[in-house]
Amino acid sequence: MSKVCQLTGKRPIVGNNVSHSNRKTKRRFLPNLQKKAFFVPETGNWVTIKVSTSAMRTIDKLGIYQYIKKLESKGVRTNVAL
After folding, report:
1. Cβ(47)–Cβ(2) under 8 Å?
2. What single DSSP character describes residue 58?
3. What's residue 82's pLDDT?
4. Could you tell me what percent of the chain has a pLDDT over 70?
5. Which domain holds residue 19?
6. What are phi and psi of 56, to 5 degrees?
7. How many domains, the chain?
8. Which phi and psi angles does 57 have, rounded to 5°?
9. What does the alpha-carbon distance between residue 64 and residue 41 come to, in Å, rounded to a whole number?
10. Residue of 10, 27, 31, 79 with fewest CB within 10 Å of its CB?
11. Residue 1 belongs to some domain of the structure
12. pLDDT tens column, 1-26
């Protein structure tokens, strides 16, 4: 299962664990993804997507339909079918 947000495209990034002795070992920072179903009143359908919590906050402000239209107008490709 990929750890990529279907709307924002957020994905894991790589960094270091730094110990008290300043020794560094590689680690991954994973995005906070949730699988969530949204109702789209403009189409009358339910859409289930894997979305980051930061995108969920924006969806709460704008609505799912407006948020996807805003992303498409910016040229961001989303793999969500409305």
Report:
1. no
2. H
3. 74
4. 99
5. 13-73
6. -65, -35
7. 1
8. -65, -40
9. 9
10. 79
11. no
12. 689 999 999 999 999 999 999 999 99
